[in-house]
Amino acid sequence: MEATPLPFLHAIQTLKHLPRTGWLRMFDNNAESVESVAEHSFRVAILAMLAPENLNLDVGKCTEMALVHDLAESVIGDIPTWAKVPKERKYEMEHNGFQYLHNLLQTYSPKTATKISELWLEYEQGKTPEAKWVKEMDKFECLVQAHEYEQKTFGKKDFGEFQGQLKHIHSKEAKKWAESLSREREDHFAKREKRLPIIFITGDPVACDNIASRVSGELSLPHISMNKTLHEKAQDLEYRHHGIIKNCLDKRIEVPASLVVEVLENEIKAIGGRSWGIVSGFPNDTEQLAEFETKVQDCNCILQVEFPPRTNDQRQESSELEDGKSTWRPPKVPFKDVLKSSAAHFKVVGSITDQLTTSEMDLCHLAVNSIKAFITDGRFPEHSKSAS
Predict the structure, then answer these.
(1) Which residue of 82, 126, 285, 358 pairs with 332 in a disulfide if CB–CB is 3.0 to 4.6 A?
(2) Residue 386: other Cβ atoms inside 10 A
(3) EC number(s) on record (predicted)?
(4) How far is 224 from 297, CA to CA, in rounded Å?
């Protein structure tokens, strides 16, 4: 039989589905909610590639070491710290697992099999500069993931215990990264303690802008049009992402959700956030909404504007802005929340109402009255408190 790497590949595929057990108890043992060992190793490898040049490391070696450092877990599983397996015993188990993987790969490439085993051994011993850096990145990646879970769970779960990984960060360069992450974490929890009084108007782009402009004028509320703002950013040569946004708008490619949210958050900060504000043209889809909920705040107020299906000519005409650029794009995942009656305009995202078929003029009038009543009533959804 011809020697191939297939037996080795089949063995390590387990890592793509093997959950990192340290996170499981934070998510009630729901494996679908946590990262896999392969996902962790992938980002450790990226971090290895990002090693500062002044360290004079063999970056290629660091990257390869990061990719293989947890391969043995495809055989023995991910042994959590709380299992209290003695360090010597764990090493024996991992060494045995690597020997098995070595044997699977040896028939195809003895040289590569030996290289992988040697990289793992060098990592375990942790004596070379490359091994020390990868070990630090293994811990730093855990810190980053912990913070991302804090964002994902809106501060409802306490991941503070994972900050203990900081004690394994020793180099000046890695400490600088960790300090930056800590500041980001503090800023995030500070935002969670505040509530941005924002009402999103989403749906048909031009109709949303028209409604928002009228609401803004009649109620003296600041208005942010995401269509207009993104076009302004595309023309702002001093803005670092202007080229990306311009290319997306010109070629009708979705602007990355994370970038849209970054732009929006900065615009919201600019209007002060002390009184109610209107944002039109956001979110376009659930990806943008999820990004905003994760990075800024959850439980938001949204007015969904939906009209009966239009002809292609009407759709094209309504998608033209002042600068002649078309921004009409079908949403990836259309919302089901639509305008029905005064009592159902504002819900925590996720409510479902029936479609209302009416003219834009009537819709504007209804929206103005409803937003006025909503703000006067002060009905603002509860949001998550930080668990930090």
Answers:
(1) 285
(2) 15
(3) 3.1.3.89
(4) 17
Q: Where are the beta strands (DSSP E) in the chain?
A: 198-203, 223-225, 277-280, 301-305, 347-348
Nearest-angstrom CA–CA distance, 289 and 149: 17
Residue 243, domain extent: 198-377
- Do residue 133 and residue 204 come from a single domain? no
pTM tops 0.90, yes or no: no
Q: How far apart (Å, rounded) are the C-alpha atoms in residues 78 and 86?
A: 14
Are 121 and 210 part of one and the same domain? no
Same structural domain, 216 and 357:
yes
Across 84-99, b (16+ Cβ under 10 Å) vs e yields eeeeeeeeebbeebbe
What pLDDT, in 10s, does the model give residues 152-186? 888 778 888 899 899 999 999 999 999 999 999 99
Instruction: Let me know: does 355 contact 338? Beta carbons within 8 Å.
Output: yes
158: phi > 0 → left, psi -120 to 50 → alpha, else beta; which?
beta
On whether residue 60 sits in a domain, the answer given is: yes
The per-residue pLDDT for range 66-82, each reduced to its tens digit, is: 999 999 999 999 998 88
